[in-house]
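Figure 3 (text version): structure tokens given as input.
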């Protein structure tokens, strides 16, 4: 009797293990996805750069946390891919739930985003790109010896700088006297209360906003409507600055 019960228990355990294995198995599926021509700063298992993707039912661009096996990406090109997507088991909360493998590149399209086409005045463009822009006024308040600044990079339409405490970075877009800041990321240091207040005010002002801008008396000025909200004074780029 004991032997029969032991055999039954063993079979039951093996059956449960088999069922659990079946439930954790996920069959790969083929899907289409569009990869945007630029990547963006994101935070998954840590600060990283993510693909921006759209699926068949997507309205907006979404972050893709992780890579695509077999995919050779070149910035400036928008890709339509046929990929094999497999659900992963035991995935950390801040990691991608799926793994991806490219099966075929369906379309590769060059996206023209040259900065010279969005800033019509080349002298103005050179003036902006060839200087470091130090924050001297924010929301009508003069900033004495402020550590906050911005540097704009021509080639990839990225910017970097300081918000007062932490380094900041992201993308921008110029168009007809306006500038838009997108997907701002930062390091995560703690500083004095005064510096953190400046940083929060500065980043909150810039993030996902479009400003009218002008250059006057060697200052770069940002406006929301007709209100001057930020003023930057120029200085030379330091050697070795990216």
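Below: residues designed for each position.
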């Amino acid at each position: 009797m004991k032997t029969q019960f032991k055999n039954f228990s063993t079979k039951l355990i093996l059956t449960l293990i088999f069922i659990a294995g079946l439930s954790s198995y996920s069959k790969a599926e083929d899907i289409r996805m569009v990869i945007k021509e630029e990547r963006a700063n994101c935070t998954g298992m840590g600060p990283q750069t993510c693909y921006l993707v759209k699926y068949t039912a997507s309205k907006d661009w979404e972050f893709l946390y992780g890579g695509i096996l077999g995919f050779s990406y070149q910035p400036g090109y928008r890709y339509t891919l046929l990929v094999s997507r497999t659900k992963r088991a035991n995935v950390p909360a801040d990691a991608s739930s799926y793994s991806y493998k490219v099966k075929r590149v369906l379309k590769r399209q060059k996206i023209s985003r040259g900065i010279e086409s969005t800033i019509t005045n080349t002298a103005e463009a050179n003036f902006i790109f060839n200087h470091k822009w130090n924050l001297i006024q924010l929301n009508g308040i003069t900033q004495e010896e402020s550590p906050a600044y911005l540097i704009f990079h021509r080639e990839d339409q990225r910017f970097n700088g300081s918000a007062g405490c932490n380094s900041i970075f992201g993308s921008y877009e110029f168009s007809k006297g306006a500038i838009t800041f997108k997907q701002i990321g930062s390091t995560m240091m703690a500083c004095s209360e005064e510096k953190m207040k400046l940083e929060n005010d500065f980043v909150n002002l810039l993030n996902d906003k479009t400003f009218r801008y002008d250059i006057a008396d060697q200052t770069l000025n940002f406006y929301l409507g007709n209100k001057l909200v930020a003023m930057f004074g120029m200085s030379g780029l330091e050697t070795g600055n990216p």
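The chain is about 20% helix and 45% strand.
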